[in-house]
Amino acid sequence: MNNLLAVTETILLFTTIISLIGISISLLLLLYRIITGPTNADRAVALDSIGMNLMGVAALMAILVVTTKFNDVILLIGILLFIGTIAVAKYLEKGVIIDRNMD
Amino acid sequence: MIETWIELILNMIIAFFLLSGTFFILSSSIGIVRFPDVYTRLHAATKASTLGIAGLLIGAFLFMYVSHGIASGKLLLAIIFTLLTAPVSGHMISRAAHRNGVKPILKNRTDEYEASIQKYVQKQK
């Protein structure tokens, strides 16, 4: 019985490693879109998605090295990603980020 | 005996959540590479990527709860925050792209947002 439990824990370890490889391939595809994006909006979309993938990498690393210290990192990446995307969108729209006259 | 079975089944559930999350993130990235337009790429970037992140974080939460008995609320908070903010950022990027002059690829349809802006400008004058 304990032998079967050890087998499932090995399956879980291999699943984590396979997920890390898949997210690495996803990051390479997004890097291609960032380099050869036709417009700047394409690059903003790919950058937003790269932040999402970094949250997944942090969660997988928290499973791999068994710790709970990465949970703060996941939440912080989420918040900074939202603020950064809003700032990039405002910059693409008008060229200024903080505007005084709200229209 | 029964605890061993429960832990075994929970391990398989965690593996299923991790694999499905990775599949959705990878399909979102393939969609970003292969779609022809900014506005179609935003569909792949906001919807599928959000679902994939939710799957990965649920898998991490279950792993922490099963193996250590730690119920980390920050992971659930990160899921809720991602579900709230991904549509907002997608809308901001699409509006910025449209005002920046990026033309959508349209087949047999008119640009209704541009027509609405023109009607609003006509009403202002």
UniProtKB/TrEMBL annotation, chain A:
Keyword Thylakoid recorded: no
Subcellular location: Cell membrane
Annotated GO CC locations: plasma membrane
Predominant location category: membrane
Domain of life the protein comes from: Bacteria
UniProt KW keywords: Antiport, Cell membrane, Ion transport, Membrane, Transmembrane, Transmembrane helix, Transport
Segments passing through the bilayer: 12-32, 44-67, 73-92
Membrane topology summary: Multi-pass membrane protein
Transmembrane recorded as keyword: yes
UniProt GO molecular function: sodium:proton antiporter activity
Family statement: Belongs to the CPA3 antiporters (TC 2.A.63) subunit F family.
PANTHER family registered for this protein in UniProt: NA(+)/H(+) ANTIPORTER SUBUNIT F1, NA(+)_H(+) ANTIPORTER SUBUNIT F
Protein name: Na(+)/H(+) antiporter subunit F1
Organism: Lentibacillus cibarius
